[in-house]
Amino acid sequence: MVGQVLLANGCSVDHYRRAYQNEDVARIRAMVLARFNERYFDAVGLDAPCEDQGHGFSMMAVACIAIETLQAFYEGLPDTRGRSAEMFRKFFSNDDLVGRLSAFNDADWFYTDIRCGILHQAETRGGWRILRRGELLDRGARTINAAVFLAELRGAVKRYADLLTAGSPRIKNLNTKMEAIIERCHAPAQ
Question: b/e per residue, 27-59, with b = 16+ CB within 10 A?
């Protein structure tokens, strides 16, 4: 039964729909944070001591998936098929969300050399290296600190959740995305 499907730990489809219907923004914010933490940040050991964290490469792959997902929530897009590059451009130019990630404001190189390289070929391109030490971004050395990047991305998710208010276009967009996710929980007709 779809109503019992978990969207995040402790938050089923039915819980989400009741929270949305009752304009329980606090519950929706908590669900968004739980969903992103469970599916992205916790999955790569973001809060573990540095020596126990996941591999930087895997952390960056997860970060790329989270960016595209977060931007889809922000815009209320059921999916981002054919719009991935646009999602990265919009994310890195979104003053409401990016904080220190604004250092990546020219997102085309990131999309091509990092996101597409990792997700399509399991490698970075353009001489970029993914590390778990050093600065967030060092353009000269062509390095990105995946642990810092992912921590900053978690901050972007928190800022997004904080922007959700009852009846706002943002929460309506979130609902559009959530309903698309819920629809895909249904088994296809035989």
Answer: bbbbbbbbbbbeebbeebbbeeeeeebbebbbb
Look at phi and psi of residue 187 and say left if phi exceeds 0, alpha if psi is from -120 to 50, else beta.
beta
Reference 60, options 139, 131, 166, 12; nearest CA is 131
The DSSP bridge pattern shows strands 143-145 and 129-131 to be parallel
DSSP states of 26-89 = HHHHHHHHHHHIIIIIGGGTTTS-GGGSPPHHHHHHHHHHHHHHHHHHHHT-S--TT-HHHHHH
pLDDT digits (tens, 9 = 90+) for 111-140: 999 999 999 988 999 999 999 889 999 999
Predicted TM-score (pTM) of the model is 0.91
Kindly report the CA angle at 100 between 33 and 133, in degrees rounded to 5?
90
Q: Which residue type sits at 179?
A: E
| CA 175, 181, 183, 186 torsion-angle sign | negative
